[in-house]
Amino acid sequence: MNHQQILDKQKVRTRDKYLLKEKYEIQPTKKVKKERPKKFTDLEQKLHDIQEQNMPNVDPNKLFDTLKTADFSEFLKEDSQRQECPNCKKKSKIYCADCLTVLCEPSQIPKVQLPFRLTIVHHDQEKTKKSSALPVKLLIENNEENCKIIHYPSHEIPEFDPDTTLILYPHKDSTRTLDLDLETMKQIKNVVAIDCTWNQTNSILNNFTNPKYKYVRLEEYNTTFWRYQFHQPNCLATIEAIYYFFKEFDCNFSSKQISQNYVYDGKYDNLMFFYHWQYEMIQNHYKYKTSNTFRKIKDYIKYNENEQKQEVQNEQNIEQNQQQQNNENSNTEGKDNE
């Protein structure tokens, strides 16, 4: 055995000895540094308190109790008639979802003044009737100028000015809306909302190739949407995201302006007017107009105590009827075999 072979053998023994030691010896635990609570300056604390006061994490079950939407009780009545759309001739109650035409008295539809333009990029594969966002155009003051809808891919997505545009999407490089600085907010003239399923977002996002685009994300809110989804409960309907964005932007902008007495006054709540109305329609339908149970989302229908007892009784009756029908089918099959 030459000298080099002896050295190699010693290296192997040393390595094996180290591995055995590492495997069987108890390693000392590393001390984890405790994160110190963030210290705010007087100014930062003031801004933080204003934002916390006006942007609470609202319980989704109580969201509609806190909204200051205009009165839509007239449209909840059973005798309220559907009107024919002058364009497509289809009948609807308040507006035509296909043509985005108001079918009731225009004075019954509230208007919201936005601080800048809202652009909605809607995927063509999503039916317009299922969109929660498209009807919002009817609620925006001077909507031809302040709200633009782009149907993709039948229409191209234009290049936006990255200095004056925000894209509302939880991108990996996104910034919290509440963290935008005052100078950035003063320059904003357009916000882009994406209206499609989560599986279709990439096909739209691939059009935003400019690396200078600013993405913004919201605080975490749980959705109140009635359509079942396989994602997390904090995946919002598009109209919910639009509403929360303008509310957060207003809170942040006003607090950065050092408005000590700022309190959110509900100025953007009517963006949820149609959404709130549809929510109440669904609640009333399953409470009073049908014996069926809303099974897509557990506890979605809000019953009072007496209604809850009646709902439990209805479910029991349905189960008993199904069991009875199954027994009758079994008996019939048995007689046929005889």
Report on the structure:
It is found in: Nucleus. Residues 308-338 are annotated as: Disordered. Keywords: Nucleus, S-adenosyl-L-methionine, Transferase, tRNA processing. Residues 92-287 form the DTW domain. The chain is of the alpha/beta class and 338 residues long. The protein has a domain at 58-287. The chain is built from nine helices and ten strands. It has a six-stranded parallel sheet. Helix 2 (42-54) runs antiparallel to helix 7 (238-256). The chain is extended, with a radius of gyration of 29 Å. The chain starts with a helix and ends with a helix. 20% of the residues are buried. Residues 22-32 have low confidence and may be disordered.
Give a brief description:
With 338 residues, the chain is an alpha/beta fold. It contains nine helices and ten strands. The model is unreliable at 22-32 (pLDDT under 50).
Strand elements, count: 10
Describe the biggest sheet?
A: 6 strands, parallel
> How far is the N terminus from the C terminus?
92 Å
Shape: extended
Radius of gyration computed on alpha carbons: 29 Å
In helices, the fraction of residues equals 25-40%
Notable characteristics:
about 350 residues; alpha/beta; six-stranded parallel beta sheet; two-stranded antiparallel sheet; about 10% strand; extended; tRNA-uridine aminocarboxypropyltransferase 1; tRNA_Mod/Golgi_Maint
Topology:
Blueprint: H1 3-24, H2 42-54, H3 63-66, E1 83-84, E2 91-92, E3 95-96, E4 101-102, E5 117-123, H4 143-146, E6 147-152, E7 165-168, E8 175-176, H5 182-187, E9 190-195, H6 201-205, E10 214-217, H7 238-256, H8 273-289, H9 305-337
Parallel strand pairs: 5-6, 5-9, 7-9, 7-10, 8-10
Antiparallel strand pairs: 1-2, 3-4
